């Protein structure tokens, strides 16, 4: 019988990605890792096909794969059950290329099946000869093939395809985009497409596992599965935690409770709490709690903060940092403001207003200050207070122009001479500095490329504790790519001078690379007056 992707053969409109998809399936029995690399490449080409074909989908700020798949007009064009499978294709491909972690056959099969579902959705929307198909594992070709794995990793592709050829094929599809876009609505009315539900077991063993491996966790060592617990409120007084993550001291840092992809991960919150209660009694330390369905993840440290949405599990170093912070934090009202940094009353009022809101659980804030009233000085002083109060260690300062990055770094150097600083625009070697300054595109590249001395990812989801966005009115509206994910639109309008601006007063804040800092501060110019500080949680 024909393999799963054989239906793509002979369909001229799918030439851009057809060969890559067919080859990814063909090599699976020879090398699951190389199949994962091939699936990622085929997926990238298929995504670019959609952008060329559909005029209703908007090209994002940056055309890398992460930005493309998170662009809202692309993401919400399909059922969330389909979209939720797509990041796994990218992550497993990255794991195969950039780490020495093993990729199992079942890992690669799930990536192939996710690619198949996406291409089925594509065919459902735009194809001339669509029929509803199901991925069948038994159809994967069993024959072994010869592979040059070193070359495949170097090229990040199984097939030889020149950039000029890719662009020519994209141009052909773009020339048909008016008709393809018009056909899409009619096809969706007339055709049927059913996303596949994923079981809780696959959720736990695949979607979550790849996140943990990419963050440097080692199964059987600092990650243990199905950990037996005693003291549960049931007749047997026993239970099993899906995952427990351990620190270098051998004590638990966090538990992970997994649910089906179709379920809200918050459903597992009470179960996670019971597991945390047991582990606290058994080990003397209360772990943090992650609940996830593989697509969405929530973190709850009930000793220090409310439950909140995060991008995924955290690295060991980040969890150890947060665990240590439980005992290090001091009331911010007890931390004096350094008069050598800020000595004007309105600057101090702004700092105290932000600190007060942080102390009550808010994690985002906006400062609106007139030109010349010291936004950077105030941000420096706030960084100093939060650092001495035990709230932040690593800080990211984002601006939309190189000149602003350079100026901010020089100002911080003057105000905070004892903190290590790094301008990513000019110094690529000191990325581990306490305060990192960057433009958005440079930070986007560093998210994936920056490594620690032992080769692990440096800018992990919880690496930065404070993100400062300079000139927020200009630099974050409609410009930030989804790798630095926009969190939300606050519906709270600002008082004072900001209302005179004649601009939108809704505030958008960042989740860097799907990252969530403990605190996010936006700065913007105000036309008149001194300063206005508001929480925007």
Quick summary:
Keywords: ATP-binding, Coiled coil, Helicase, Hydrolase, Nucleotide-binding. The chain has 537 residues and is an alpha/beta fold.
Shape designation: globular
- For the report, how would you describe the main beta sheet? 7 strands, mixed
- Beta content comes to 15-25%
How much is the average pLDDT? Answer: 84
Kindly name the structural category. alpha/beta
Q: Using only CA atoms, what is the Rg? A: 25 Å
For the biggest β-sheet, the strand order reads 9-10-8-11-14-7-15
Q: Return residue spans where pLDDT drops below 50 for at least 5 consecutive residues.
A: 481-516, 527-531
Distance between the termini: 56 Å
Q: What level of helicity do the residues show?
A: 40-55%
Total strand count, please?
15
DSSP summary: helix tally: 18
Architecture overview:
The protein has 537 residues and is α/β, with parallel strands linked by helices. It is built from 18 helices and 15 strands. The chain has helices spanning 15-26, 32-53, 65-70, 72-75, 80-83, 86-98, 105-126, 149-155, 163-175, 177-190, 200-214, 269-283, 316-328, 345-359, 375-388, 402-415, 440-449, 472-475; strands at residues 223-230, 238-246, 252-258, 288-292, 297-300, 308-310, 364-370, 395-399, 421-423, 435-439, 466-469, 484-490, 507-512, 519-526, 531-535. A hairpin with a 4-residue loop joins strand 4 and strand 5. The longest helix is centred in the first third of the chain and has 22 residues, at 32-53. 45% of the residues are buried. Mean pLDDT is 84; it is low at 481-516 and 527-531.
């Amino acid at each position: 019988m024909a393999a799963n992707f054989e239906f793509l053969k002979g369909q001229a409109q799918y030439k851009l990605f057809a060969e890559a998809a067919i080859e990814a399936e063909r090599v699976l029995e020879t090398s699951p890792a190389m199949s994962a690399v091939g699936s990622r490449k085929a997926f990238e080409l298929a995504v670019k096909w959609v952008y060329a074909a559909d005029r209703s989908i908007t090209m994002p700020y940056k055309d890398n794969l992460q930005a493309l798949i998170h662009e809202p007009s692309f993401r919400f064009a399909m059922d969330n059950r389909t979209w939720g499978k797509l990041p796994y294709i990218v992550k497993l491909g990255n794991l195969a290329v950039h780490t020495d972690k093993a990729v199992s056959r079942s890992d690669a099969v799930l990536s192939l099946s996710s690619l198949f579902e996406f291409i089925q959705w594509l065919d459902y929307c735009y194809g001339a000869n669509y029929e509803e198909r199901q991925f069948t594992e038994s159809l994967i070709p069993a024959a072994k093939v010869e592979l040059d794995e070193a070359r495949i990793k170097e090229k990040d592709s199984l097939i030889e395809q020149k950039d000029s050829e890719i662009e020519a094929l994209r141009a052909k599809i773009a020339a048909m985009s008016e008709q393809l876009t018009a056909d899409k609505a009619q096809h969706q009315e007339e055709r049927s497409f059913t996303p596949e539900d994923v079981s809780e077991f696959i959720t736990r063993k695949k979607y979550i596992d790849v996140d943990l491996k990419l963050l440097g966790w080692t199964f059987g060592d600092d990650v243990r599965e199905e950990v037996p617990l005693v003291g549960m409120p049931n007749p047997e007084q026993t239970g099993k935690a899906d995952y427990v993550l351990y620190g270098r001291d051998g004590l638990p840092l966090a538990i992970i409770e997994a649910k089906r992809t179709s379920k809200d991960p918050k459903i597992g919150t009470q179960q996670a709490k019971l597991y945390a209660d047991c582990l606290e009694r058994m080990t003397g330390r209360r772990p943090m709690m992650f609940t996830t369905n593989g697509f969405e993840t929530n973190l709850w440290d009930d000793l220090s903060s409310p439950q909140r949405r995060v991008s995924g599990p955290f690295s060991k170093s980040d969890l150890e940092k947060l665990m240590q912070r439980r005992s290090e934090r001091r009331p911010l009202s007890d931390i004096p403001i350094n008069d050598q940094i800020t000595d004007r009353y309105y600057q101090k009022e702004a700092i105290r207003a932000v600190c007060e809101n942080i102390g009550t659980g808010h994690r985002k804030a906006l400062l609106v200050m007139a030109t010349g009233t010291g936004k950077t000085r105030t941000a420096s002083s706030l960084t100093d207070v939060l650092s001495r109060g035990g709230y932040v260690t690593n800080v990211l300062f984002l601006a939309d122009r190189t000149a602003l990055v350079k100026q901010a770094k020089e100002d911080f150097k003057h105000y905070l001479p004892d903190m290590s600083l790094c301008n990513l625009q000019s110094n690529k070697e000191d990325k581990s500095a306490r305060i990192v300054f960057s433009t958005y595109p440079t930070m986007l590249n560093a998210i994936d490329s920056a490594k620690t001395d032992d080769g692990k990812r440096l800018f992990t989801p919880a690496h930065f504790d404070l993100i400062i966005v300079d000139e927020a009115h200009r630099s974050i509206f409609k410009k930030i790519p989804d790798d630095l994910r926009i969190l939300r639109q606050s519906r709270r309008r600002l008082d004072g001078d900001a209302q005179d601006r004649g601009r939108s007063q809704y505030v958008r804040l960042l989740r860097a690379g799907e990252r969530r800092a403990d605190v996010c501060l936006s700065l913007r110019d105000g036309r008149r007056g001194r300063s206005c500080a508001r929480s925007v949680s």
